[in-house]
UniProtKB/TrEMBL annotation:
Coiled coil: none annotated. This is Sugar transferase. Keywords: Transferase. The keyword Transferase applies. It holds the Pfam family Bac_transf. The keyword Transferase applies. Residues 3-191 form the Bacterial sugar transferase domain. InterPro entries: Bact_transf (IPR003362). One of its GO terms (molecular function) is phosphotransferase activity, for other substituted phosphate groups.
Length: 193
């Protein structure tokens, strides 16, 4: 209950204080390339329930791979800065406020990747709300660059990166606390400066 109250208060305050920045970012995305300001995608949430995640759109609206690798040519000018600063994640404060996500928790995955989770880790990782940040987000902040170095980025993600992220997510869930969450939020803010 304390975690949810903290999420509600912090996300509402964040949305209020960051409203001018959110509006400017949305306008920049719209002016930079055709398409909506927000990117919406189905992810898997708590207890395996699908939900729609919101981010600022950082890529041109065209078909492509599910994962972003290195300097993906679909990334827009505004998108490159929003991704580098992690400002593209700010609309997820709305997802936190509405209860689909938490500020801290395992990052939500696409359904096709969740289908590959080992049963024991799946149960643990999906027992909590997914978050905007978690230990795996900090450890794999340069995930796109790591994938760019791989001969087969999709295979590298599925066989190497995803299992490591799942282990970190499982460890987080087993030892989660409000104090630990605040530490992770502070570490995330330091990492994006």
């Amino acid at each position: 209950m304390g975690k949810r109250l903290f999420d509600i208060a912090a996300s509402a305050l964040g949305l209020l204080l960051l409203a001018p920045l959110l509006l400017l970012a949305a306008l920049w995305v719209k002016l930079d390339s055709p398409g909506p300001a927000l990117f919406r995608q189905t992810r898997v949430g708590r207890f395996g329930v699908p939900f729609t995640i919101h981010k600022f759109r950082t890529m041109r609206v065209e078909p492509g791979a599910a994962i972003t690798v290195g300097a993906d040519p679909r990334i827009t000018r505004s998108g490159a800065l929003l991704r580098a600063s992690k400002l593209d994640e700010l609309p997820q404060l709305w997802d936190v406020l509405r209860g689909a996500m938490s500020l801290v928790g395992p990052r939500p995955e696409l359904p096709r990747y969740v289908a590959m989770y080992p049963a024991d880790l799946r149960e643990i990782v999906l027992s909590v709300r997914p978050g905007i940040t978690d230990p795996a987000s900090l450890s794999f902040r340069d995930e796109s660059e790591l994938l760019a170095k791989a001969a087969d980025p999709e295979r590298e993600y599925v066989e190497v990166i995803m299992p490591m992220k799942l282990r970190l997510a499982g460890d987080y869930v087993r030892s989660a606390s409000l104090v630990g969450d605040i530490r992770l939020i502070m570490a995330t803010l330091r990492a994006i400066r």
